[in-house]
Amino acid sequence: MRSEPEIRHVLLDADGVLQDLPGGWYAAMEPYVGERAREFLHRTWIDELPMLAGRGDYGVHLATNQECYRGAHMRTVLGYDDLFDVSCYSYDLGVAKPDPEFFAKHGVEVAI
Fold it and tell me: Tell me, what CATH number does 19's domain have?
């Protein structure tokens, strides 16, 4: 009997995933959950924050296509490298997503 693979890592992108949404997250959720958008998101974030802070059972990694100037801003001003177990930027890897080589190089960095 074949067992399901164990999930050990979570890979996140920066643009459109981690950064602020124009108009804000509360406004974006209102069409779906109405007045309870703030409550809904806060409950969701309470569950996610420990994992994203490295207190969960998963490695949490950044994989993003960035040129060097924006990547440097993300690293220094936004502090992304301190938030993730491993941060991989396309300008460092020399290849961009969705090229399979990006994910192969990211896997080496994560030591999967």
Answer: 3.40.50.1000
Q: For residue 19, give its domain range.
A: 9-110
SS (H, E, C) 40-75: HHHHHHHHHHHHHCCCCCCEEEEEECCCHHHHHHHH
pTM of the predicted structure, to 2 decimals: 0.64
Residue 61: which of 21, 88, 33 has the closest Cα? 88
Q: Tens digits of per-residue pLDDT, 52-68?
A: 655 667 788 899 999 99
Rounded CA-CA distance 69/45 in Å is: 30
What are the pLDDT digits (tens) for 15-27? Answer: 766 666 678 878 8
